[in-house]
């Protein structure tokens, strides 16, 4: 996805009454998240929703002006041009696209620049991606080490969460599950349990089609969003 927003220094906020969209989403004034979000929102509002739906292979209701997009197992309805989000009733109990700033930013970037794609069945580490050295240290700290620290000694808790969100078990490590973050884009989360001699460890693998729609910074944020969501899902089991 494009990183044009890094060069954006000022943008007029889209307002609803006396409150900007950035305010509604909880961005602090002049925060590093606020200006990129308002830039993406302006791009979204000027985009052709039918082109988005066709490019991503997702449904768009012209009358209600709603996209239907599945994210982490839940079907969401996303309005155009407002980018207001609701979900289809299910048993998840937590809905990251309605509450998590970074999940919303990741999703609007996917709608703007992503494409429908399926992997070949092969999975790659973050390092093995074309831009694998970019943000590698951040990805390792925010995602790989965080996953191991959070669940490496709590395998049963990890299993309960992954089964709650209907992930598919895969034969890696001591325990591993596969989830679909966006349609056609698969992530495998792998854990090795710690013991008296070795600390717990983890790995995160991505289906090999991720470079079609995502750049390095997207995937670093993505791992953060997924692991943050697991903690919230645990509270509703």
Overview of this protein structure:
The protein is α+β, with helices and mostly antiparallel strands and 237 residues long. The chain folds into two domains: 4-113, no CATH class; 123-234. It is 37% helix and 21% strand. It has eight helices and eleven strands. Strands 7-11-10-9-8 form a five-stranded antiparallel beta sheet. A four-stranded antiparallel beta sheet has the order 3-4-5-6, with helices on one face. It has a two-stranded antiparallel sheet with strand order 1-2. A hairpin with an 8-residue loop joins strand 10 (185-192) and strand 11. Helix 2 (34-46) runs parallel beside helix 5 (101-113) and helix 6 (136-151) runs parallel beside helix 8 (216-234).
């Amino acid at each position: 996805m494009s990183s044009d927003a890094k060069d954006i220094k000022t943008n007029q906020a889209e307002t609803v009454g006396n409150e900007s969209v950035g305010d509604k989403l909880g961005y602090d004034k002049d925060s590093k998240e606020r200006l990129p979000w308002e830039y993406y929102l302006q791009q979204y509002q000027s985009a052709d929703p039918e082109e988005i739906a066709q490019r991503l292979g997702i449904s768009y209701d012209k009358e209600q002006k709603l996209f239907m997009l599945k994210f982490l197992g839940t079907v969401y309805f996303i309005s155009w041009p407002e980018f207001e989000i609701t979900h289809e009733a299910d048993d998840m109990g937590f809905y990251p696209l309605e509450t998590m700033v970074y999940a919303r930013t990741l999703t609007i970037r996917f709608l703007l620049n992503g494409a429908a794609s399926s992997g070949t069945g092969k999975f790659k580490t973050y390092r093995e991606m074309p831009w694998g050295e970019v943000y590698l240290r951040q990805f390792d700290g925010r995602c790989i080490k965080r996953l191991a620290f959070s669940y490496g000694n709590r395998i049963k808790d990890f299993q309960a969460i992954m089964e709650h969100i209907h992930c598919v078990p895969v034969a890696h490590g001591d325990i591993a599950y596969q989830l679909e973050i966006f349609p056609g884009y698969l992530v495998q989360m792998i854990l090795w349990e710690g013991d008296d001699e070795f600390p717990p460890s983890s790995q995160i693998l991505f289906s090999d089609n991720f470079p079609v729609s995502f750049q390095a910074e997207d995937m670093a944020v993505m791992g953060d969003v997924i692991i943050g969501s697991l903690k919230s899902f645990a509270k509703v089991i």
